[in-house]
Amino acid sequence: MGTRIGLVADTHIPEARKSLWPQVYEAFEGVDYIFHGGDVHDLDLLDTFESIAPVYCARGNGEDGSGGRPIQPEDPRVKYTWALEIENVKIGLTHYAPIDNRTGNQAMQNLIREHWGDGKPDVLVSGDTHTEIITECYGILCVNPGSPTYPHNYDTQYGTIGFLDLDDGKADPSVWLITDDGIEPFDWDAIPPWKLR
Fold first, then answer.
1. Could you tell me the residue range of the domain that residue 123 belongs to?
2. pLDDT tens, 133-153?
């Protein structure tokens, strides 16, 4: 039957807008878990997500007061890094990941060694860049769902979310574009809406 995880990062609520687009909540209805890649900013948002599914969140620089933002309190749903195993897939969750496909990516190796030691994840979910990506780096499937509110750090507008479908050792990530009517698969070959405005 498998497990579906909703992926979101860099929501920046209430900085980007007072509340998150309702399309995000609707899209996550029925998921088994929600992973947030950090820079939530107001942890009350996690309460809304938790009414849909259990939440794991990476603590981002925004939660630590960068840019003069309020420092967010400790919360059991929020850690700098998570190491989870679901459906025989080892998953790491963190805010910043130095995803770089150059040979011998020392920064990624150091990150893995520091936070996961010998338990190198099969999949690494992150945020921070506001840029959607699915790629392999250092033998790890790296997924960043982008930002639903500040895609590519443009002004507030519809951005992206993601899903991670797991089934007995297999991981299938996807990125979706938020639209007026809900979400649609992200077209990696098209010019994204934020570049057409």
1. 3-187
2. 999 988 899 999 999 999 999
